[in-house]
Amino acid sequence: MLKLGCAKRFTLPGKPSMLRGYASRNQLSTGIEDPIEVGVLAIAAAGGDTVLCITADLIGIPLEYCNRLYALLEEKFAIPAERVWLCSSHTHFAPGFDGYFISSREGALPYGEYAEDAEYFEYWSRQMLDAAATALHSLEEVTLESVTVEVPGIAFNRRTRKKSDGKVQMSYTYPEHPEDFLLHPYDSRMYAWRFSTVHGPKAILACYGCHPVTSYRDAYAISADYPWYFKQAVERLYGCPGFFLLGAAGDVVPMLRGNSDRLQDKCPVNPRAAIGEVMATTLRLNELAFRKIDCPKLSSTVIEVPVTLRQEYDFAQAEQNYRRAEAGNCTPEELYWRREAWLCCRKYPAESSTLPLRLLQLGDQVLTGMPFEVLSGIALRLREAVPNAVLVSITGGYQGYLPLQEEFPLGGYEVSLGGTDFSPGTGDRFLQAAIDGSSRL
């Protein structure tokens, strides 16, 4: 038997803030379209350990900030880092903690580097700790059910390949002439777990892989994007809170996004609301497909996977290379990736290190949490090798994109300098570690 407690807290900053997710932004937020929040699921096995699954409406929490949050949680609740899952939804319309760089010389904010938002980190941490305390104090026995359903037709893989030469041409919106392209596959499955007491559902946790970049009216307004509408629809349809995990969404975007005239002419609805409603309603319509899991298992572990920064970054000379590029007449593209290399190398103590892969056995499934925007190929290969494995992106860190080595020769943003900071083969190592670790549980 499992026990579950859950809670949520709003995390709106209360001031204009730099929203994270688009490097071209050059001004602070202008308002609020939808709330953002932090959610906590405290899950305990009978007579065993407690796991905290924390869901955040953030672009991602870099590893250094995860470590600070782990320390706060262990100090207050005596729950060690290996039993804490910090998962970000990856909305592109929320503030962040870490510093940022304004690359435009013509925006509202001056060109250059800006410090971390320590005030927001402190506030967000308090909200997280408060939610965790409430979740831990509301533990009660629950039954666990799970379901896996297809949710096609609301997203596509933006790494479209031209039929003429087979190379990737990034389609950030659905191409006007899709017949000219080969569309990469993606994982269109939604995975969900329902925790119920004798009185009915207490919480629903779902995982789906699609970039929360839908937007609607204002790209500078705060929003949790479609996950907010999914959670609201769950509450309306089930009478309990919903929680969201991001699947393999590194190369997957909504079919409808943005506020362009083309979009408004073809489909004058709020696409964020529509996606969230489709997801929650799909769960409701698959009510008979939920499976009760008898004697559910719960365990959490961490595997450290070796990683190496890209050779082009020139770890020892990264800052000097950037300063020379900034002072010279290099192309904007070279200046961008030289800056990214310098900023990246500042994060790591050495050219080679390790990053965490987290494994959570929940019932008869294994959640594999990776600290990246994971591309679809990794999730599909993982599921083929370990059918009961579920990939969760941007968990326990946020360290850029994670492609397989085979994606690099095809080109595209996710494999570019600045898109991924790590050498080709990193995604393959994480995939193999996930296969090996999941198979052992």
What's this, in brief?
The protein is an alpha+beta fold and 441 residues long.
Alpha-carbon distance between the termini? 18 Å
Relative helix content:
25-40%
Q: How many DSSP E strands?
A: 26
Structural class: alpha+beta
Structure annotation, total helices: 9
Outline the low-pLDDT stretches: none
Average of the residue pLDDT scores: 94
Largest sheet: 9 strands, mixed
How many discrete domains?
A: 2
Rounded radius of gyration (Å): 21 Å
Looking at the structure, what is the overall shape?
globular
Quote the beta fraction.
25-35%
Describe the structure using short key phrases.
9 helices, 4-stranded mixed sheet, 27% helix, 2 domains, alpha+beta, 9-stranded mixed sheet, 26 strands, 441 residues, 29% strand
Question: What does this molecule look like?
Answer:
There is one protein chain. The protein is an alpha+beta fold and 441 residues long. It has two domains: 2-154 and 184-292, no CATH class; 298-367 and 398-440, no CATH class. The chain has helices at 63-77, 118-137, 226-238, 261-266, 271-285, 318-327, 332-347, 376-385, 426-440; strands spanning 2-10, 19-20, 31-32, 37-45, 50-56, 84-88, 94-95, 100-102, 112-114, 140-150, 155-157, 159-162, 168-170, 181-182, 189-197, 200-208, 221-222, 242-246, 252-254, 291-292, 298-308, 352-362, 365-369, 373-374, 389-392, 401-402. The strands form eight sheets. Strands 1, 4, 5, 6, 10, 15, 16, 18 and 20 form a nine-stranded mixed sheet that branches. It has a four-stranded mixed sheet with strand order 21-22-23-25. α3 packs parallel to α5.
